[in-house]
Amino acid sequence: MQWSFGGEVNWTAPRAIALAFTPALATLVLIAASASTVMLEPRAGQEGMEVPVIVILATGFIAVHAFHIWLIGKAMNRKDR
User: Fold this and answer.
1) What is the DSSP letter of 7?
2) 9 — phi, psi (to 5°)?
3) What is the pLDDT of residues 16-54, one digit of tens each?
4) DSSP secondary structure, 15-79, as one string
5) Crossing angle of helices 50-76/15-39, nearest 10°?
C-alpha cells in the first residue's frame, strides 16, 4: 500500500502479489546468504557466525511478514470503509 500524508490509501497491490512479496524476497535473500557462506571465506574472527546470521535474517523476514499481514488485516477491518 501507499499512503498519502493525510493517512489515506492511494494505491494497493493485488492481494496475491502483496502476500507473496515478502516470502519471495526472503527466499532470494536467504538463498544468496546461504550461497555466500558456502562459496566465500569468512574474515578472521567471523568463523562460525554463518548460522546465526541466517537465523537472524530468517527471523527478521518472518517478523516483517507477520507485520505485513497485521497491516492488511487492520486495513480490511477499518470501520470507515
Assistant:
1) S
2) -80, 125
3) 888 898 899 999 999 999 999 999 998 898 888 999 999
4) HHHHHHHHHHHHHHHHHHHHHHHHHSPPPTT-TT-HHHHHHHHHHHHHHHHHHHHHHHHHHHT-T
5) 170
Q: Give the bridge partners for 3, in sequence order.
A: 9
Contacting residues for 19 by C-beta, under 8 A, at least 6 apart: 68, 69, 72
CA 64 to chain centre: 5
How big is the chain, counted in residues? 81
Q: Which of 30, 31, 50 is nearest to 42 (CA)?
A: 50
User: How does pLDDT run across 56-79, given as a tens digit for each residue?
Assistant: 999 999 999 999 889 888 888 876
CB 47 within 8 A of CB 8: no
Whole-prediction pTM value? 0.72
What are the cell numbers at 53?
A: 546470521
